[in-house]
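Annotated sample (chain length 208).
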Amino acid sequence: MKKQIALTFDDGPNTTTTLEVLEKLKQYGIVASFFVIADYINEVSAESIKKAYAMGCEIANHSKTHVDMTTLSHEAIKDEIAYTSEKIKEIVGEYPKFFRPPYILVNSVMVEAIDLPFICGVGGRDWEAEVSTEERARLILEGVQDGRIILLHDFENNINTVQALDIIIPELLEQGYEFVTISKLFENKGIVPTVHSGIVYSDVMQKA
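Output written by the structure step:
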């Protein structure tokens, strides 16, 4: 089997950067997974989600408000997740299969309350405006191996990340990697992701 990775994006949807990312995916003939924030979904931005899904991309849960969920009660956590999952279901016709914690902050209450596998990933510090296109690409490429998840952001005006894709994607294709959704990455590696385990996956082969 070919080496496989999952490219993922946080903090959409919007009608600027999300669409620019989708154009890059289309250009290279690959798919990605998008972790969306429900409060950013409106009638216009929902079209970006529909377009991503139609291209074969996966839509996942990144909470309703992007609050530090370790500060919330069990009930409030469940509300954040349920609201976002319902929004995604309304738009694409299926519930999300994965959750990425805002700020990758996790506590035992979240682990107990959330019925989805937790996802992190190899990052490129691309939420920091001062990190250059080249540095973002370098950090990602240094952290990639078979079965890994790449964590980037498609929030508005994150142009350095859009440009970094022109370094990251061709290089990984040249290295023989296939880009798949998170669901496919687990499936193809023969792994069932755990729920309520406390594992926050950056690699589908992760055990803890």
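Annotation: The mean pLDDT is 98.
Annotation: The CA atoms of residues 167 and 173 lie 10 Å apart.
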